[in-house]
Amino acid sequence: MTLISSFVDEIIYSTSRLSAVRETQSWWVSQVELKTEDRLDRSSIRVRNPRLLIDLLHCTLHRKNELHIVSDHVRTGLENFIKSPPPEIVSSRFGLLMNQASVDRNYRYSCDALAERFPEQLVALFSPQHGFWGEEQANMIESADSRYEPLDLPVYSLYSETRRPTAEMLEEIDCLVIDLQDVGTRVYTFLWTTLECLRACAEHNVRVVVLDRPNPLGGEIFEGPMLQDGFQSFVGNAEIPLRHGLTLGEFAMFINKKENIGANLSVIPMTNWQRAMHFHETGVPWASPSPNMPSLSTATLYPGQVLLEGTNLSEGRGTTMPFEFCGAPYLNAEEFTTEVARHNHPGIQLRPIRFRPTFDKWQDEICNGLAIHITDPHAVRSVPLTVSIIDAAKRLAPNEFQWLNPPYEYEDKIPPIDILFGNAQLRKRIDQQEPIDSTELNTLCAFNIARWQKEISPFLLY
């Protein structure tokens, strides 16, 4: 038997193999002999089948068959907060910014878990875009204030006539706790709701505590471009790249400093999260944070595919595969797919399809387009992929393809594609109707990654 010093807690089969997790875990445990009898810990583990270990490590390194070894379950900030709350929260009245994706590992809502842990202290709830229950669909569909009946608490909507907590909302609390599942993309509005909360709480002397959660895309890869000054909106209100690589807690610390907000901010970090992890490798349960973010595949493609919201191409809203399907009635599916595939797009396969959205763009009309299948989530670079999709659609159907006009996310002057992309360069280049080669494709999406890494390094928790 081979002595190894690494610790193995569980083998997770992702996507289609999730149902085999528990069975596989038991089988793996049968392959090891522990020096301690009662629990797995970081003591040495003796492997009964050394060849098995080599094969497993090979699969993990090359990521060929969806097999991943996870050293420990990631514990979210919510779990750590409940286990070891900061002293100042013990006697505080607090509010909670959350939605129906704010759950613990047993899918229990964070408000219920916190109300039980801190009786009589949770006095108000706040909700971001799409509402507390994630029931509202697209941009600028506002949510009204409501009540969370199980706890008989008010729910203040921060996507309504106000996107910042008012003095009246904050007057009953000493602390605002934020527990939101972000998706790692600049245009996802949970970032900017957090920014507005920091500003309001700084103004009214209310402490802010962010309960950190994983960035579903990990924290090692960045995709541009950077938002340019003059293109700010509620889908991008500071100069950060499209795929930013930060957790929500890290972003809060970064933006609090960058914007000189001065909020009394603390972050409850996760335990065992590593920047190389994608969400499926964390052991944290996934619940849809918004109605068109149903899966991890959606989140993986979202940094690029969200750009389609600035065009008359369907991004798959109104289907069961938002952001994984795209197209329009005026395209030829096979021709369109072939044209997009002339670029090398790692980690995906493309397939020509036809689909009929039940709502949103091209409702009840048959769209010709493509399906994006993820074969390696770590390799996917969705922004260049979507730029090539827009380029192909414009050149194949120059008279039918259109940019959508404002308003978009409360911006009524700048074209939606410009505030989504972060500048006007993409729109102007696409309108030239000349093919974009691979070099130019990368140039359009480029930004100074080294400078970004230097800028965020003081705020990285992991």
Outline the structure in words.
- By secondary structure, the chain is of the alpha/beta class.
- The chain has three domains: 69 residues, no CATH class; 211 residues, 3-Layer(aba) Sandwich (Rossmann fold); 136 residues, Aspartate Aminotransferase, domain 1, CATH 3.90.1150.
- 27% of the residues lie in helices and 16% in strands.
- The chain contains 14 helices and 17 strands.
- The strands form five sheets. Strands 8-9-7-6-10-11-14 form a seven-stranded mixed β-sheet, sandwiched between helices.
- A hairpin with a 4-residue loop joins β8 and β9.
- α6 crosses α7.
- It is globular, with a radius of gyration of 23 Å.
- The N terminus is likely disordered.
Biggest beta sheet summary: 7 strands, mixed
Distance between the termini: 34 Å
CATH architecture assignment of the largest domain: 3-Layer(aba) Sandwich
Given as residue ranges, the uncertain stretches (5+ residues, pLDDT < 50) are 1-71
